[in-house]
Structure formats: C-alpha cells, structure tokens
Amino acid sequence: QVQLVQSGAEVKKPGASVKVSCKASGYTFTSYDINWVRQATGQGLEWMGWMKPNSGNTGYAQKFQGRVTMTRDTSITTAYMELSSLTSEDTAVYYCARAGTDGDFGRWGQGTLVTVSS
Amino acid sequence: SYELTQPPSVSVSPGQTASITCSGDKLGDKYACWYQQKPGQSPVLVIYQDAKRPSGIPERFSGSNSGNTATLTISGTQAMDEADYYCQAWDRSTVVFGGGTKLTVL
Fold it and tell me: Does A64 touch chain B (CB under 8 A)?
C-alpha cells in the first residue's frame, strides 16, 4: 500500500536550518509530485511547495522563496524539505503529501513536528 | 494572490445534512477538493475533482463546484464526521487552501 513515512520530531534554535525527510513506498516514486504543507498549532494548512521526483524540478510558495529547498534521492525513494533561517514562527507540523493527477493530495505523511526555540 | 474563504464553524445535528462552503474568484473554473482533519491526525482527502469520492470515503460525502463557490455536503451526518474541513484548489501552479471549517455535530 502507498505510504509516506516522515522523519522524527526536531528541535532547532532560531537561525538554524531543518531538513525533514519523506520516505515513499508502495508506488513508483517518480510518477507523482510531492508537496509539502505545514500547520502551526491550532492553525490551518499552509502550502510550501512542490517537487517532481522524476526531474527534481520544484515550485515554491512565494512566502518561502529563498528559504526552502526541496530535493529527492530516487535511489531510496525519499523526498526532503529543508527550511533555513528558522524563527519561532516556523514552529509547526510539516507534512509531505503525494499529489494526484489533478492536484489533489491523496496520500499524506504522518507529519513531523519542528519546534524552534532558544 | 488567490484566496479561498470558508466559514470558521458549522454546526449540525446527528442525522441531518451539513453543508460547508468555499468561495473564491471563479472557483468553478478550477478543480476543488476537500480534506477532513481530526485532532492529532493528518488530513484525509474526502472529495477530489469537485465531486469525486476516493475509495473508502462514505457515500454521505458529496461535493459540487460552480461559479464562485464549492460546497461539501455531508448527508446523514454522524458523530464521527466532527472534524476540521479544508478546501483546496490550484491557481497558476500554486496551491491554495481555505482557512478551514470546524464541523461540530451536536
């Protein structure tokens, strides 16, 4: 079955970077885009960007341009999201999600809590 | 930038029909989808391509999208349907989520 398994919780200091992984299984990794979405406690869903695993092409939300990098390693069917220059406002649960052909997110990872605190 | 607007909360009695709206400029020209999220869980896709249900989603969930409004309808609402619901659409290679609607079944 299709699964997206994310890396564990992280605690970072302000100004640091965090890299979250998303291990895909149960389907052809290069056939579906991976998107990243975050959610601060008690808040709504916030889209961060997409990545095409077959080419490595990416597209980022304007808010995160220059601060986010999405990559992948096709040999281990894993996608990564790295966010730099962290502030307390980046404290959130970060999700990876597999996009369907019409842009819906039919599969989600379990989420990774990133806490930014001094 | 493109925006999707949802009511913050909707209440419904068990067994009744709940409707959650999502408004955006010419939203009917785009595909809308809907997610259900329960506390502490990842979102779950309940409607895609405006009105299609993924495998495993009960038939009581339905969707429509026309003009400026997409609507998620839950017929015969059950206590287990109490959750946050988010609409989503694409606008010029960018994903937009609505602010979310808390559905209370009481």
Answer: no
Two structure tokens written together for A93: 């649960």
- The bridge status of strand A112-116 relative to strand A18-25 is unpaired
Instruction: State how far residue B42 is from chain A, nearest Cα, in angstroms.
Output: 6
Flag if B97 and A50 touch (Cβ within 8 Å). Answer: no
Which residue in B31, B44, B97 is closest to A47 by CB distance? B97
The tens-digit pLDDT sequence of chain B (106 residues) is 999 999 999 999 999 999 999 999 999 999 999 999 999 999 999 999 999 999 999 999 999 999 999 999 999 999 999 999 999 999 998 999 999 999 999 9
Residue B79's CB is within 10 A of a number of other CB atoms, namely 8
Q: Go through A3-35 and write b for each residue having 16 or more CB atoms within 10 A of its CB, e for each that does not.
A: ebebbeebebeeeeebebbbbbeeeebeebbbb
